[in-house]
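Try this one yourself first.
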């Protein structure tokens, strides 16, 4: 994803395919992140979906601690690295 696409997603706001997860009040808990990943994975649409960690509900970017959280999800087997797709660093649903 490039910066223009990211700005576009934030400007459009939350939807069925875009979820903002705030961290301004403190780090996002594993439980909240896992619940969000499960909800996004179970959407009734095949369109791309995005979880934007460190974005407040009003669209302000408060700063993510995403790598720490994503690392824990990968370690627990909920996600696996999305390598070699030419789209930068990302994650995809685990196929385990």
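Now uncover the answer:
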């Amino acid at each position: 994803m490039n910066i223009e696409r990211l700005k576009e997603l934030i400007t459009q706001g939350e939807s069925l395919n875009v979820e903002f997860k705030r961290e301004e009040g403190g780090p996002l808990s594993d439980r909240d992140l896992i619940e969000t990943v499960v909800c996004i994975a179970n959407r009734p649409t095949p369109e791309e979906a995005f979880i934007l960690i460190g974005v407040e509900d009003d669209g302000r970017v408060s700063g993510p601690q995403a790598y720490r959280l994503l690392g824990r999800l990968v370690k627990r087997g909920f996600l696996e690295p999305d390598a070699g797709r030419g789209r930068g660093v990302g994650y995809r649903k685990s196929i385990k």
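Discussion: The helical segments are 3-12, 30-41, 66-76. Residues 83-96 have pLDDT under 50 and may be disordered.
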